[in-house]
Amino acid sequence: MRETPRPQGTAGDTGSELPLHRPGRAFAHTTGASGSGTPHRSDGRPPHTPRGARQTGPAVRSGTTPPVPERAALLVSVVSGLLALFALTTWQIAADGPLRRLDERTGRALVGHGPARLTEFLADLGNTQIALPVLGCAIVWSLLRGARREPFTAALTMAAVPLLVVPLKDWVARPGPLTDATGYYPSGHAATAAVAYGAAALLLAPYVRRAWMMPVATVLLTGATGIGLVLRGYHWPLDVLGSWFLCGLLLLPLGLSRRKPLGPGVGPGLSCRSRRRSSSRMPSC
């Protein structure tokens, strides 16, 4: 019985030769580039990379802490700046510093300027009878859109205004521009306008098409209130500025807690069924 002849390339093969390369297939291990015979992967890396030699990323190094996010650094800068400005203003007024004397000269020069009816109307924008209903409507609207945490934070922020402003008024005991009565720093009307209109803008911004209009409206309303208070002689300029610095700090938690809605006209607390009804392009829940 005759033996079947083997292929010429495999007859007498002892396993010492490398396997033939087949087109379209990659070798799991090849000889090293240095010719040392050390097996390497097809991508040039060793088959077993030690854990300590692995690269985790270009920005992370062994033994170092990750860098501080830009948002956190910006937040720290804003808080530090507002605190420094408020502390400087309060110190100058309480200690009868040069800024207070300059502020009083400027205030006396500005009192009585502008149309009386217009400046009175602008000053009245800081009344609780006007500012609080605006904030209340914004809170109700955000609650109807499904928000829960943001309206609660806005209400707490507004409640914190008299708790902070009234003790400061009693402690500084600054007289007003047209009266010897004390308790004019910081301005309660300016603080009420800044927090009410600022919080309302933060609550409504996620649900309007042009969100940039909300901070613009806040700046216009609070600025107009401060101008009216100074021109009518109800407060010194630094009374208004000190309130703005303080209220900027109060509004920061609300600005950080604000969330974007899940879609156009959709509140963050609506159910998946409501989201699918409002927009067919939204992802499935």
UniProtKB/TrEMBL annotation:
The keyword Transmembrane applies. Residues 155-252 form the Phosphatidic acid phosphatase type 2/haloperoxidase domain. Residues 1-66, 265-285 are annotated as: Disordered. Keywords: Membrane, Transmembrane, Transmembrane helix. InterPro entries: PAP2/HPO (IPR000326), PAP2/HPO_sf (IPR036938). The keyword Transcription does not apply. The chain crosses the membrane at residues 72-94, 125-144, 151-168, 188-205, 212-234, 240-256. It holds the Pfam family PAP2. This is Phosphatase PAP2 family protein.
